[in-house]
Every structure is written in C-alpha cells, then in structure tokens.
Amino acid sequence: MKTVFRTALLGLATLVIATASGVALAAPQPLRINLTDSDGNPISKENIRRFHCRDMSDEPIVTRVTLKNGQAVIELPAEPIQVCTLFVVPGFGEVDVYADNSGKGFSTANTVDFVAEAAKTRRERVIKAVKEAKRELCPIPSAVEKAISESEKLEPYPALARLLTAGEEMTLARARYRISRYDGPRQGFLFGANAFGYPGRGPEYERRFKELFNYGTANLYLTDYAPSPDKRNFSLADAQVEWLRSNAMAAKTCPPLYFARSVSPEWMKNKQWAQTEKTCHDLMLEVTERYKGRVVTCEIVNEAHDLSNGLNLTQDQLVRLADVSARAVREADPNVLRVINCTHLWADYASRLTSAGLKRRSPYRYLKECIDAGVKFEIVGLQMYYPQFDLLEIDRMLERYASLGKPIHITEMACSSAPGLDPNAQRQAATAGWHGPWTEDMQADWIVAAYTLFYSKPYIGAVSYWDLPDIGCFWPYGGMLRGDLSPKPSYTRLQSLIRSWGYHYLDPKKSTSTPAQ
Description:
The chain is α/β, with parallel strands linked by helices. 33% of the residues lie in helices and 20% in strands.
C-alpha cells in the first residue's frame, strides 16, 4: 500500500513516495513569482530584467531561475531567500525592487504575486527606518507615517509607489537631521572628482573644478604610464598631482593595479603567479615612492573582487594581490591611506556562474576575505553608479559595508542627465530612470540627495564624482558640466549645498574646513 508524505531534501521542497520496493523522488517543487504590470498584464520574459535571488544577509545566491512570460520559477536553495528585479513602478520610477516575505524569506514551494510581496517588504523596511530614526530623536515626516498607515488599504502598485517614496523621504529626513546636529563643517571631509581633464580642458575646467572641490584623483592607469616593462611616463600624473597640490587640494593616485581587460597591458598577461606577484609589488613600490608625501590616499587594488580580472587570477590570488600591494605601499610610505576600491556593490552578477561553471564573488565577500586574511588597508572604497536603487536601499547597502568596521570613501559616482545613448561616453547607454526619464533637473535631484546621505554618515570621509564634464566622460551624459563646460543644475545645486555646510573653497575667509594634506 502506497503512503504519500512530504519531506525536505537538502532544503528543497520535494515530494517523496514510499513503496514496497524503495523510495522514489519526484521533481523538486519550485517557488513561482508572478510578475504583472500595472494593468495586470504578464510582463514578457524579455522585460524581466536583473531578476535574481539573495540570501537574508543580502548576498546573491546561485540557484536555478527559469524566466517565463509573467513568471519566474525558482528552484529553492537550502536557505530562505529574497528576490529582486528591476521594476517600473508608476508614480515612482524604475528601480530595483525587493520581496522578502516580510523579512522571513521564501523557503517553501508557493506561488506569490511579486508586487504585493514587494509592497509588504517595503512597508517593513520603512517601518524599521522610522524606528531607527526615532532612536536618533529625528522627527518623522507626516507623509511617511501617512504612507505607512494607508498603504495596507491600497492596491499593490499604488501601495508600493507610496512606500518607495516614503522610504526615500525618511532616508533624507534622517540624513538632514544628522547633518543639523554637526558642530560646523566636518573637518577634513573631501569633495572631489577625477582630475583627468587637467591640463587638456583648459582654464574654464580648472576654474569650475576649484569652485566645487577640494580633492582630486590623478591618472595612473597602467596602459598610460607603463605601456611596457621598462618604459614609464609619469608626466600626466605628475602634472595633475602638482596642480591639485598647488591649489590647496588633496590628491589621490588612481590604481596601477586595475586589471580590467581594457587597461591591462599585454606585457603583464600570461605570467606565472610568482612573476605577477613580484611585478605588482614592484609597481606599487615604484609609484608610492614617487608620490610619497604628495598624496593622501592611494588605491592598492581596484575592482579585484571578481569583475576586473584581465590576468585571469584565482580568487585566492586576488586576495593575495591586495596583500602584496598593501605591503609594498606601506614599505614606501608610512602615512598614505590605502584603499580597496569596489564596484557593483549589490553584486547581482554573482547570482550567475561563470562560463566555466565557477561561483563569482561579491565585493562584500572579497573585502571580508581580505580582512580575514590579514590584509592591511585603511579605507573601503565604494563606487556609486547605481541610481536604479532608491535612497533607502542605498542607505541599507552603506550600513552593510560599514559593518566591516572601516571608514568608507565614495570613490566614484555619477548619474545621467539625459536618456538614451551618449556617443561621447565610455559607457554609452544610460541606466533605468530613477524617477522617470533622465533630465538635467532629475540628475541634480539625485546628486543632491546622494551627497546629503553620504555626508550624513560619520564613517564616510570622501566623495568623488566621475567625471566633471560631459566631454570624454565615463557615464552617459554623466557630467555636472556640459560639453562646453557650462554648468548643469547639478553643479550649481551641489555647490550651494556644500556651501550651506560651510565649505567655500575659493574664499578661505568664509570656509571653516580645509582638506587633510
């Protein structure tokens, strides 16, 4: 006689049938996530973007996900998960949205509506932000409390839009409150950008840079200064460092050890690890000795967690690379602050295996592995090219990286001022529109909000924009100056914001804070 019962095998919801001859296992039962637009129509498979799973600590998880029209079918892993996808939310914009089963995670086979679950998740996260704000004695905006109380009575899409807005309002209210509690400007805080436009962009570029910043990054890409094993050209970096210093601005060197394929010279490729290790040590020693006492920070590795690996190093070797570089820097300069710079901070890419079937590593896990391995560095560097995440989720991400226990610098950041393709940018396609299609005013809104959030965090000591003008910029339409070097609203509004905090770089009589040198 057959007996049917349910059990869990390796955390998968599985139907098991016991028979006289043994046990037969049926196929694992999946989690099904229904995805419909605001009119109730199934979202096409092609328009389900960036969908992935994460564990409850916010690390991406590799598991089988099958996308269909209007649905994602997930093979459940051995632990609770949350799901995330880029979503158009009428009344708010296009952002990455989370659903985590009200903080418990999904762990059993079920069919759920993504928008309804996302609204519940967002409500819980806004409530948590309100509780944290109350502990800080921060006044709670009435609109936030109203959104929380009314959201449960609304349909899922309107509720999600209200709660996304409320989360951002709460995040900014907390940030402004913290800033209001500061006893004057934060001493030594660095507002900067890459100084790659010097000297080629001329006097107007220099004037605009000095009016807004007290900090700059000089160009030390390997392909520019070390095109061969025995050839060096430091002229550009030397000029930029000296220009920054001569104008009372702090200077930083851009990383020699950045191994994206586009900037990895051929002479460094296809070496044995022992050769690579020695070469990297010698490069960092050489550069650090050259700029000793002239720069306040240097990046010991850039994007070495997984993505920028033109030398095809193993994950262990990438940790070792950070250690080799850190030791070389300290050997040459006892005072310069060492930065490990990271990108793609939410690491959705790590939810997918490599073409060779290997697991990828998130920046957070790389940093933790470096710390656990005893790598000596002072600053966590985070790149913030992510306006497709709303301000509450950016805040949550920053707090997660802060839990590593080191100061943070925002090493690069930008957002677009127009939609579509920018033929003059390195990355030509703009990201999703934060609150609609990108405009110059929306760029200004995002930049002012992001800087407010960063400046409010005592553990963040620097913010660097990338790049100041649209000419030859990295991010599409990402400059705060147009191609003719005229200022966009983002430039003038950020300048007003920084001055409201007490920084007046071209008028020392008004400024009450100077950069650390």
